[in-house]
Amino acid sequence: QCDLMPPLRPPAILVGDAKLGGISTTITAMDVLAMRGYDVIAVVVPDGGGGLGNGEAIARYARTHGVPTVTLPRIPERNIMTSCDGEDIRRWLVDGAEVFDDLLERMMTWHNDRVTRLQAAPDVARAKLWWPFTQHDMVAREDVTVIDSRCGEDFGVYAPDVGGHGAGGLQLRFDGSASWWTQGLSKELQSRLVRAAAYAAGRWGHVMFPENAHDAALDAASGLLNGAARSWGQRVFFSDNGSTAMEVAVKMAIRTYYVRAGLIKGPESALEEAANLPQVQVLALDGSYHGDTLGTMDMQSPSVFTGPLQTPWYKPRGLFLTPPTLQMVKGRWVVRQPKHGVARGLDDEGAWGAEEATIGWPSRHEAFDWSTRDSSLLADQYRAGVEQVLDAAATASLERGAPPVAALVMETVLHGAGGMNLIDPLFQRTLIKVCKERGLPVVLDEVFAGIWRLGAEGAWELLGQTPDIACYAKLFTGGLVPMAATVTTEEVFDAFRGPTKQHALLHGHSYTAYPVGCAVAAEAMKMYRDPQANRNLIVAGADGRDVYATERGGLRIGGNVVEAHIRKQNDELAAAAESRSNDGGIGGGGSDSDGSDSGGSGGDGCDRDHGELSLRLREFWDEVAVRELSMLSNVKGVTAIGCVLAVEVDDGGGAGGYSSGATREIVVRLRAHSIQARPLGNVLYLMCAPTTDPSKCHALLRAVHREISAAAMGEDDDMW
Hints:
Blueprint: E1 11-15, H1 22-35, E2 39-46, H2 54-64, E3 69-72, H3 87-95, H4 97-128, E4 146-151, E5 154-159, E6 169-175, H5 178-181, H6 187-203, H7 215-225, E7 235-239, H8 242-260, H9 267-273, E8 281-285, H10 294-298, E9 318-321, E10 325-329, E11 332-336, H11 354-358, H12 370-373, H13 377-400, E12 405-411, E13 414-415, E14 421-422, H14 425-437, E15 442-445, H15 460-463, E16 469-472, E17 484-488, H16 490-494, H17 515-529, E18 537-540, E19 546-549, E20 555-557, E21 560-561, H18 563-579, E22 614-617, H19 623-630, E23 635-641, E24 644-649, H20 664-670, E25 675-676, E26 683-687, H21 694-713
Parallel strand pairs: 1-2, 2-3, 6-25, 8-9, 8-12, 12-15, 15-16
Antiparallel strand pairs: 4-5, 5-6, 7-17, 10-11, 13-14, 16-17, 18-19, 18-22, 19-20, 20-21, 23-24, 24-26
């Protein structure tokens, strides 16, 4: 019952306890109801305090929260040993009639005020708010979605009365964009995160972080080092969001480059050498998006986000490659090479990967099979192209003083804001390999792709390559509170050691590692990995057999429960992380575990080098249904991986991209299927949580197929 009612948000009346100990019981109940999303509009204390003064004490506490307290006469006791004609209870009801009438009036007033606020919200919002990524002149009043509440993966959306005269009603709509890719938990698990946040707020509130430690930060760090960054991560730096996490990541990478390149020979000479350190650039991918802060904008190639109207001081500090993409096109997964080549001056001109572009593969997993792809002609072409680009950059630096390339920075596997583009994993895998061989630090932006979003705990697992630095946010806290982390190797951390504070990383935020965020993050990561909480978890054993979550939440192979093996793996990874150290240097630095022999049998390249068992998520999007969707006449291609489904819609000869409006009408039509989606140019995408029931994804996929089919027909769907 306590989880059933919040989506409706009816006014709640709490009946307090007038007996001994009732003050604590009532106050606790009031706080718990608030944590569950209930609106307590009054507290009723029977017996008028019962002579103990409970009513007065409860009223004082409730009053501080704006909640009135009323009293009722003592409830008559029922003596089962004697006959009762009901006269006592009738008299009690009559004596309390004034109180009951008052409570009913309060409930009606509260409800009417709520409806008034909901009806006025669009006008108030358009007058007072400044929405991100929104042209307000294009938002009509009826386009404003008023969200009254949230229940797991569903919004409680206020739907006005069609005629405009009634109170309207509430609709539960699936949050199709996962609230900008943050949501990670089903409604059954939502309360666990709320409880973790409330506990941390009650225990710590906020505490400053430098030179301090608290359990919440230690637990969140351990969750990352034993989870998404297992096998390579050794240090965790907390920050506010994905953009700030990437800002600090690039600072770390550049210092590491200076040390590896011998430009900083040691802590003793670092301050003297600092004046002669060169300005640098990064190797990055066109179409990537790393956030809106100044440094991250400069790591992105010119785009609608970096134009003069947006960022007048934008100065690209990168060598940008145009990556090939992987997509299901008319039933097969194919690699599309960029029209004008990966980089200017390269002799590829569409000649690369002819077989991968025309024949492709029937399943996505084959595109991640390193046992075959590493030895392909395309792998050699990718390597030669990347080496040619880096050689040219090195020559330009030596001969013309151009900024040297100091690091590889890229979103792992899937470009989110750039259009949900799945980058050919072989290309990214090759990039990492070549950069590692040259001693360039590797920075992976896993803000969107990491922590199970693409089906693996760390998106780097899909490539079978480990980074030096990776950033995590969004799913990090399950979507409840903002929080981010930058994870590094010990070598990166050592680059900031020295005898003075000037040697240190002088970067931070007022709310760095705030306990509420850390506690929520630790709980979220624990739930993703918990087979009793996440029934989508699959454990791939060393023998290649998969273990699935059972109806009771256990993991079984032939009847043997294997949760103990997961715990053992986690313990072993934690112990290994403590004892591990990296040597590194220009020409071969960085993590020595690159997973180059992993993948193939694990599905999507997930490696099994780092423990007895490998965890991944089951498939959410039925491949047969995805294939049928890709065959529609107005669909250019489909991407389905992990929690993400993205459909590139043909916009009728338009340029496509972020400014296209090709999917806007489809998004509106999906609301009839209780789906609240958000267009991304000519790409329609939906995103579930790592814990979503796959049957829900099947229903979502059917709705998408129906509405895109209707758009292709050019007629209302009830005509066919």
